[in-house]
Amino acid sequence: MSAAASNSSKMMTSPGDMFTLENPVFCCYLFWSTVLVVKMLLMSLLTAVQRFRYKIFPNQEDLFFKNLEVQFDDPHVERVRRAHRNDMENILPYFIMSLIYISTNPNADVACILFRVASVARIIHTLVYAVYPVPQPSRILAFATMLLITFYMAAVVALRTLSFI
Amino acid sequence: MSAAASNSSKMMTSPGDMFTLENPVFCCYLFWSTVLVVKMLLMSLLTAVQRFRYKIFPNQEDLFFKNLEVQFDDPHVERVRRAHRNDMENILPYFIMSLIYISTNPNADVACILFRVASVARIIHTLVYAVYPVPQPSRILAFATMLLITFYMAAVVALRTLSFI
Amino acid sequence: MSAAASNSSKMMTSPGDMFTLENPVFCCYLFWSTVLVVKMLLMSLLTAVQRFRYKIFPNQEDLFFKNLEVQFDDPHVERVRRAHRNDMENILPYFIMSLIYISTNPNADVACILFRVASVARIIHTLVYAVYPVPQPSRILAFATMLLITFYMAAVVALRTLSFI
């Protein structure tokens, strides 16, 4: 039993146990990535809300009201779609980057703060872009926050694995 | 040897072993995620098929036939591209959400059924959107199926990791 | 201690240790995925460079210069955006596919070569598409390289997990 315990404690510090609920960094990643997944999926619903509010539909089979034609360039719909596309461009690579960053066994405090700041920044990005447009540079700052955090994680991982080029 | 065996059986129930081929939930994820990856990549090829069929190319260097100009608003090509974009908006976040959902050690039957239903729903989504357009609400139902499954997984993960906010 | 060592060496060959820095295949994945993440994020900055160079902005709040109106169809900006979208369509599914491919414990040499070739191919794709347009089939070949590698990985994973359908 003591052998099992010592074995298990050894396991905790080995790099093989990063992706478990016993690792607080991974748990923090789980929580905030889930928040961002939900935020991204809500963009689809926000697009749908705008489509029904302004009666702008892109497919023949979506014309739920009489005397409508397909339309593509409504500014209210397109703004939400641009915000959604920006999410895909930035949050999806961040999901992978931050996940593999965990495998380098980073300092727990640093990693958790990065996850929190990056996630909150993207929520602000959505608010100032798609929900209630606000003058620049609010959106640029929110955008740059996650971008720089992702670059930092990339530098950590790349330096650590440079010999496998 | 008996110690090794007991150790190995202990490992199976620890949360550290979720992402191995010994975990049937992970294997089910592997199979159906692979199906969805292939499905998504086929959208690129379907777009190419439409581009050659209707001779619609977006770049100067793609004009493989004489007397063509770049064109962007062909309805046959754009329909496939909208379906493809919808895949990116929904399936890519689902990949991450369902992967991290596995780390919470969910009930194997529930998890596998969710993976299967979500994947089949997205195949149907593609068929009724891009291959053979069908009246609504067929596409909305296929879309909502994966969306609700992803939200369910998000709820499970978020509740489990709420203390790491 | 010798027991611990033998246990640890046993662990290395078990499928549960794929996602650690002790696995050279995973390290190679880490390095090249990081390169691709950075490459993708640079597309955002390249788009921004084009927007400022040609003064093409899609939102009212982005009009940093006087007497400008929002504009959407500038060919220089749209070319970079198409290249960026193509990255999302291909690299993001590849991230997931190659990550889960590692769990099947592939031959290290084969896996590392695939990661390197796929990544370099996409860098070439960006160069010949968005940076300095080059006649076809250069872009098609770069595109097809990662596509075929992803299909190969999909075949390996699907055959290995076919019983979990």
UniProtKB/TrEMBL annotation, chains A, B, C:
<dbReference type="InterPro" id="IPR040162">
    <property type="entry name" value="MGST1-like"/>
</dbReference>
<keyword id="KW-0812">Transmembrane</keyword>
<keyword id="KW-0256">Endoplasmic reticulum</keyword>
<keyword id="KW-0560">Oxidoreductase</keyword>
<comment type="subunit">
    <text>Homotrimer; The trimer binds only one molecule of glutathione.</text>
</comment>
<keyword id="KW-1000">Mitochondrion outer membrane</keyword>
<keyword id="KW-0496">Mitochondrion</keyword>
<keyword id="KW-0808">Transferase</keyword>
<feature type="transmembrane region" description="Helical">
    <location>
        <begin position="113"/>
        <end position="134"/>
    </location>
</feature>
<dbReference type="GO" id="GO:0005741">
    <property type="term" value="C:mitochondrial outer membrane"/>
</dbReference>
<comment type="function">
    <text>Conjugation of reduced glutathione to a wide number of exogenous and endogenous hydrophobic electrophiles.</text>
</comment>
<dbReference type="GO" id="GO:0005789">
    <property type="term" value="C:endoplasmic reticulum membrane"/>
</dbReference>
<dbReference type="GO" id="GO:0005739">
    <property type="term" value="C:mitochondrion"/>
</dbReference>
<keyword id="KW-0575">Peroxidase</keyword>
<dbReference type="GO" id="GO:0004601">
    <property type="term" value="F:peroxidase activity"/>
</dbReference>
<keyword id="KW-0472">Membrane</keyword>
<feature type="transmembrane region" description="Helical">
    <location>
        <begin position="140"/>
        <end position="159"/>
    </location>
</feature>
<dbReference type="GO" id="GO:0006749">
    <property type="term" value="P:glutathione metabolic process"/>
</dbReference>
<dbReference type="Pfam" id="PF01124">
    <property type="entry name" value="MAPEG"/>
</dbReference>
<feature type="transmembrane region" description="Helical">
    <location>
        <begin position="29"/>
        <end position="49"/>
    </location>
</feature>
<protein>
    <recommendedName>
        <fullName>Microsomal glutathione S-transferase 1</fullName>
        <ecNumber>2.5.1.18</ecNumber>
    </recommendedName>
</protein>
<dbReference type="InterPro" id="IPR001129">
    <property type="entry name" value="Membr-assoc_MAPEG"/>
</dbReference>
<dbReference type="InterPro" id="IPR023352">
    <property type="entry name" value="MAPEG-like_dom_sf"/>
</dbReference>
<comment type="similarity">
    <text>Belongs to the MAPEG family.</text>
</comment>
<dbReference type="GO" id="GO:0004364">
    <property type="term" value="F:glutathione transferase activity"/>
</dbReference>
<keyword id="KW-0007">Acetylation</keyword>
<keyword id="KW-1133">Transmembrane helix</keyword>
